[in-house]
Amino acid sequence: MADDSDKCNYEVGYGKPPKANQFQPGTSGNPKGRRKGSRNLKDFAREELDRKQRVTADGKMRSLSNREIIVLAQINKARKGDSKAFREILALDEGLQADVEKHMGRTDLSPDERKILEAHLAYLKNKPSEAGDDV
Predict the structure, then answer these.
(1) Residues 68 and 114 in one domain
(2) Count of domains forming the chain
(3) SS (H, E, C) the chain
(4) What is the reported pTM?
């Protein structure tokens, strides 16, 4: 009799299917699962960003990834005075600097690797002030 009272009290409507039609515990709502070989958006975007294109840069034909082309386009916009592009490039540069600084704290680096990172960090630290002078 408890079942009869539960059936009467359960309100069926939008987002509330009849109890008999609800997923049973332990049963997947998608039993076949995702198709093999299907890609998610993140993988698709990464593949497209890594795809190489033939472009003319500095008067030479070069093969660049879409990622590199996008960064170069932002840099060119910043050179022309686009302040938003300039801020984005500086933020990207600061992120690169933070990555290098993070790796400087590692203890598993050889002396040669540490020298390379130190030189790169010095380059990154000097670069933003030079870029600010040019624009």
Answers:
(1) no
(2) 2
(3) CHHHHHHHHCCCECCECCHHHCCCCCCCCCCCCCCCCCCCHHHHHHHHHHCEEEEEECCEEEEEEHHHHHHHHHHHHHHCCCHHHHHHHHHHHHHHHHHHHHHHCCCCCCHHHHHHHHHHHHHHHHHHHHHHHHC
(4) 0.49
| Paired tokens of 21 | 């039609």
Task: Please provide the size of the chain in residues.
Answer: 135
Q: What residues are paired with 31 via a beta bridge?
A: none
Say if CB 77 and CB 83 are below 8 A apart: no
Same structural domain for residues 61 and 75? yes
How far apart, in Å, do the first and last CA atoms of the chain sit?
81
Domain that holds residue 98: 84-135
Distance CA 55, CA 67 (A): 13
Per-residue model confidence as pLDDT tens digits over 37-83: 777 899 899 999 999 999 887 788 989 999 999 988 998 898 898 88
